[in-house]
Inverse folding.
């Protein structure tokens, strides 16, 4: 447990130094890892470069008082608790400190034993909050695994690949169109890996400019550029021991590609505006909605970085290539949003499901989820109907009338009519059960109740 002390006021500086040294000695004797600062700016600099569980700050300090320091800590979203000290036993001062997020306050002069009790309470609360955050993150990651739904051969291969690569530390490249679930796959890999108890940090490369992405990835030193008032850790440092997910990696500039290649080779970073190399330990999972090999041929992506990233590749198929998974996914999203909105939908009528299966889904699974969510909002229980779906109705004569497509739709309808009882469905179709079984496999059909999940 690390403590950061910040003591200064309008009394003699030598007296302040004695107080700081005494408290440092006191808490060190109690087994804490302690540091001290003579001013708020110095404290902020130390907080930016190192994690502290607790800050003990004086209210009265030159330049920046304890309340301002507390506001800076909160605005920077630093994970630390704060206790403020004041020589003015003012209720107003105490209320201000508590309103700005202080754990507690203590008035001077104080008994070190009393301060020790407040410190222990603050650290215990901080520990519980951290554990709660980790548990919430773990539950979120576990929930995300349930969304990798699909009984098609393509999705079975994806799940097998996830299980194969999760246990090793190799770099993974996930390729697939937007909306196919690349981040879900990355989270599944992280959740099943030995690094699962450490952070998974996501960087959306396409949303950042070249300057911003360097600061986001590598961090920056104070004064490195306009607005850089304090040292800031980058994503690579924040992911220490865990996983960095670089989404849309194809969008980074050639300069950033060069810097990233060096990080992957040397396993160390240099903050923007800095000179000191910092050792890092993380796993990289990258994703792209474009074919990186083609971009390399165009000269827009470094071949050596591509080879570094392309150690193990997972290709996510678009939804139009696995229509058999649409009923499973649609039912999953219907259950999800019915629960969230306290609606009582039990399924889709035949026309609605036919529309979902016939649609080309250019936005893939993300588009399907949005369509189902809207249908839950506007629909009338217990069934989602065709007019509830915000999908273009097929133009006259535009329906796929190929024999294979017609047969597939007819088999789905009959199976649904008989609750997926294959014996009864085969009898109604006038074929034997073995023939029906082979047709079900050929078209990749799966009943909603048998949704395959990681």
């Amino acid at each position: 447990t690390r403590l950061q002390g910040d003591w200064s006021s309008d009394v003699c500086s030598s007296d302040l130094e004695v107080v700081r040294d005494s408290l440092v000695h006191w808490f060190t004797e109690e087994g804490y890892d302690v540091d001290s600062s003579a001013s708020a700016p110095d404290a902020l600099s130390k907080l930016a470069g190192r994690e502290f569980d607790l800050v003990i700050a004086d209210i009265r300090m030159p330049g920046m008082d304890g309340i301002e320091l507390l506001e800076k800590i909160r605005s920077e979203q630093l994970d630390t608790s704060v206790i403020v000290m004041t020589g003015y036993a003012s209720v107003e001062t105490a209320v201000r400190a508590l309103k700005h997020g202080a754990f507690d306050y203590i008035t001077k002069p104080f008994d070190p034993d009393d301060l020790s009790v407040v410190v222990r309470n603050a650290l215990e609360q901080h520990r519980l909050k951290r554990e709660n955050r980790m548990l919430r993150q773990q539950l979120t990651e576990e929930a995300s695994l349930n969304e990798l739904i699909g009984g098609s051969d393509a999705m079975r291969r994806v799940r097998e690949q996830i299980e194969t690569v999760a246990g090793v530390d190799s770099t993974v490249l996930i390729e697939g169109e937007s909306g196919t679930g690349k981040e879900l796959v990355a989270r599944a890999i992280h959740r099943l890996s030995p690094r699962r108890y450490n952070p998974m940090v996501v960087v959306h490369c396409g949303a950042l400019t070249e300057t911003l992405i360097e600061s986001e990835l590598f961090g920056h030193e104070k004064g490195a550029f306009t607005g850089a008032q304090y040292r800031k850790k980058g994503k690579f440092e924040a992911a220490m021991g865990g996983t960095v997910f670089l989404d849309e990696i194809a969008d980074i500039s050639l300069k950033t590609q060069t810097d990233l290649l060096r990080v992957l080779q040397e396993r160390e970073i240099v903050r923007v505006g800095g000179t000191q190399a910092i050792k890092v330990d993380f796993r990289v999972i990258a994703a792209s909605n474009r074919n990186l090999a083609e971009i390399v041929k165009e000269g827009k992506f470094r071949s050596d970085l591509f080879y570094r990233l392309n150690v193990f590749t997972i290709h996510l198929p678009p939804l139009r290539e696995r229509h058999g998974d649409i009923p499973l996914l649609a039912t999953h999203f219907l259950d999800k949003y019915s629960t969230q909105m306290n609606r009582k939908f039990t399924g889709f009528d035949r026309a609605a499901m036919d529309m979902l299966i016939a649609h080309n889904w250019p936005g893939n699974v993300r588009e399907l989820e949005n369509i189902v969510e809207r249908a839950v909002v506007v629909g009338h229980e217990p069934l989602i109907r065709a007019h509830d779906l915000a999908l273009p109705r097929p133009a006259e004569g535009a329906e796929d009338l190929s024999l294979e497509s017609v047969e597939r739709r007819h088999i789905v309808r009959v199976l649904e009519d008989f609750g997926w009882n294959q014996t009864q469905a085969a009898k109604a179709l006038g074929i034997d059960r073995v023939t029906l079984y082979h047709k079900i496999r050929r078209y990749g059909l799966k009943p909603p109740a048998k949704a395959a999940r990681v």
